[in-house]
Every structure is written in structure tokens, then in C-alpha cells.
Amino acid sequence: MSGFVPGDSFLADCPGRLTVELIADKWTVVVLYGLSKGPVRHGELIELIGGISRKMLTQTLRRLETHGLITRHAYAEVPPRVEYELTPLGATLIDPIHMLTEWARANGDAVLDALEADPQPVTHGD
Amino acid sequence: MSGFVPGDSFLADCPGRLTVELIADKWTVVVLYGLSKGPVRHGELIELIGGISRKMLTQTLRRLETHGLITRHAYAEVPPRVEYELTPLGATLIDPIHMLTEWARANGDAVLDALEADPQPVTHGD
DNA sequence: CAGGCTATGTTTCTGATAGGAACCAGCAGG
DNA sequence: CCTGCTGGTTCCTATCAGAAACATAGCCTG
């Protein structure tokens, strides 16, 4: 192998690995980013994120809630108002998430550029 | 909204957002982590990662390759030997990835703990 | 008072995707 | 000739994502 020592690896069935699989998700990262500036409403997230359906947003928020990363505060008003907010635990995720998003912002063009340059051999295509 | 200014947001259809969706993926993060120490063979990744099928690994590697994050070097030997390695661009992802994995390693227990504590209302379950 | 509006969430249906297992290539060795 | 090694692909199915319609529940309008 390469330089992996037993205790170093989260590459197995362990809490760390499961947690990576929890947040390493298309919508999860974006939602957490959307919550990184403070409490946000459901509808605000829909507009802010763009492209996510209500279903996926609710589903993602629920998962984060049950994992203790965000809280859900529903005000008993009409029309309903629901705010989501990072928990202290969830707040510690802001830094990693921001590093990722900053990297994407900085290198997004290079990545898409490489994609254009590679006309994808299409090994078994057609 | 909260504190999002127009230029700040990657929350739209832009290179940054697309790139986040590229790497914010269950296997992608783990594979990149597996490659972070140097060139690794296909079979090594299978064992190292654990739980990934050859199909998903190949698929993930191909996607990373076409996006310019890794290179694939196939040696014309028998039995075949194929090594994957981060490109310079891909290497700049190590820091963000490691921050994420370190967070997961540190907080994995807390996350799973919260999951146990929340017996998930099961809104429409059953 | 009927009907529409609001914001959140759920249901339904369908197309895409992940996952597993079997199969393929190509050569070395018994 | 048959087996094994390694990387990769194909097939099939269970699961998931996405879109759109429906549900709720009170307020506002006509």
C-alpha cells in the first residue's frame, strides 16, 4: 500500500467513515453552506441554493437534524415559518465546508476546463 | 436572506457549484483520500477503501480523471497494473479533503451518538 | 361565507443511479 | 488445457432523485 498506517485510516467501517458519507453529499454540502451565515428559512434555502426540490431539501435537513448538526425551529404561525440553524456541533463543520467551497470557487474553472479538454474516450459507448 | 452577497455565493449554476457537486460524493471523497499519499493501484484502493465495488471505483476514478484531478497510468504488463495518482490540481484538494476527514474522525462519535438519541419521529413511516 | 393565498411538507410517479455478481481479456504456469 | 492474476465491463435489480400535484390551516378578499 501507500503510506497508510492502521490508526490513520478512516477507510473502513468506522464512525468517521460513516460521517464522511453523511456529509459528502451533493445537497448536504450546499445546504450546510447555506446555513453557515445563520438561521435560514426553508423557502430561503430553496431560493438561495437554486435547483433543489422541496423534497430533497426537507430530506437533507431532516438527516442533518437527526445527526445533530442542525436544529429545526417551527413557529406556530400561519403561514408556517420554519427556521433551520446549525448546532454548535454543526458550526464546527463550517471551516471544512468553507475550505471545500473556496477550493471549488478557485478551481472550478480549471476543473470544467479539463472536462472540456477530455473528449471522454467513451470506452464502450454506442 | 442571511448574509449572502451576490458575488459571495456559489449557490447557483456556476463552475464552483458544479465542482462541489463533483467532489461532494460518497465515494469521491474516500477515493481522493486514498490517493492522497501517492500513487495507488486499482486493487489497492479496493482493499484500502473497503465496501466499494470495482464498478463504482472505476466510475469514480474515470470521473476524476476526466476532470483533471487524477491521472491513470496503465502498465502494459500481465497481469495488468494500473496506477492512479493525483495531478497537481488534484493535489490542491488534499487539504480540504483532509480537513473534512479529520472533522469526521474527530466528531464521528458525536454524530452517531446524536443519531442514536434521536429516535426519528418517522413522520409518515410504517 | 366561498375561494384564493401563504409557507412548509408529503405523496405519487417515473427516469436515473448504485450495487452486486458474473463475465471478459490476455498471458504465465502447472 | 485449465487455472489464476488484475483491471474492467455488462447485466439485472433495488434504491434513489426529481418533478409536480396535493395537504394543511388560518388569513384576506370579494
From TrEMBL, chains A, B:
It comes from the Bacteria. It holds the Pfam family HxlR. GO terms for molecular function: DNA binding. Residues 14-112 form the HTH hxlR-type domain. Keywords: DNA-binding, Transcription, Transcription regulation. This is Transcriptional regulator. It comes from Streptomyces shenzhenensis.
